[in-house]
Prior knowledge:
Number of domains: 2
Shape: globular
Mean pLDDT: 84
Number of helices: 7
Radius of gyration: 29 Å
Low-confidence stretches: 1-45, 402-415, 417-425
Number of strands: 28
Amino acid sequence: xxxxxxxxxxxxxxxxxxxxxxxxxxxxxxxxxxxxxxxxxxxxxxxxxxxxxxxxxxxxxxxxxxxxxxxxxxxxxxxxxxxxxxxxxxxxxxxxxxxxxxxxxxxxxxxxxxxxxxxxxxxxxxxxxxxxxxxxxxxxxxxxxxxxxxxxxxxxxxxxxxxxxxxxxxxxxxxxxxxxxxxxxxxxxxxxxxxxxxxxxxxxxxxxxxxxxxxxxxxxxxxxxxxxxxxxxxxxxxxxxxxxxxxxxxxxxxxxxxxxxxxxxxxxxxxxxxxxxxxxxxxxxxxxxxxxxxxxxxxxxxxxxxxxxxxxxxxxxxxxxxxxxxxxxxxxxxxxxxxxxxxxxxxxxxxxxxxxxxxxxxxxxxxxxxxxxxxxxxxxxxxxxxxxxxxxxxxxxxxxxxxxxxxxxxxxxxxxxxxxxxxxx
Length: 425
């Protein structure tokens, strides 16, 4: 507030009294200044309390800080325990299957609580205490510690404009009630959702998840192209037999599983930030392929006998639709995206399938066997009466025998391949 001085009459006498009075104020003010900081000084002191941390410039590195502690997803639960965080006692005996996750759990540190997701990206079942924190929900509160993201983005301070300037155009953005939601996706099970108040567009909440297996710089990676990749032969036309998993994708033919290198030869590029660098022998991983502004988020498997780079793995799941992956796709007896429903049904005659209806349309599943692990899915839009989406998923245990892994419990399109999603009862 600015106080305006009112001038009066009385010449030097009034001026002298004013100077004496001002001297008194100045002296008293100096004493008061030592005890009670002005608002600007208080603000400066508050800013000085903000921890100086070193974080990545890239959101896709999934680094963040809680106070002075810097974290990166996924992080071993044991690392959190070293900093005083703990899980509920009832969860200490919980076992988590390989390549599975559990969401909405709680980590506690004295009076502070945060919501987290646990993930076991490895192949064997493990106790929860030996798993990783793969996801986290941070929400700005006045009494909470500073939550910071890459590029200096801070909850409770940074605006929507500042976030998009740092991280680029989001994958998705929408408004709901009093909030603005933006999402950055970096392939399967690797994304960040940031939420802003619609009134001032200030960031107040972030949910980050990276369920992928952390990479080990010391992991030996074979430079040799696996024989399975060398022996692969791409089909030249539709087979007509759905069980052969021949698919025409973006005007090129593949037989799924198909090497990532085959997609690269046909003009697709591997996105570094959305792809695993390598995959261990017999294990699954993830790749993001890009072409002409379109992105394909695919599950892959290493059918070789040694750890290999992502280019030498096999794509086991892909799709095309009207909304997200807008890529031309065709399967079986040349059933293609956008085909009228009646024509599609004619081409399905003689094939064994299961139909499931929902409020948006009908799904036609063509399974390889009773396990229902490997399939082709055709979705027909209820209103348009057109084939709106096609999905191909085939992940046999070996390429030679075409047998399926008996340990797998769900198909790779559902989750972390062998996902067993657990929720609290």
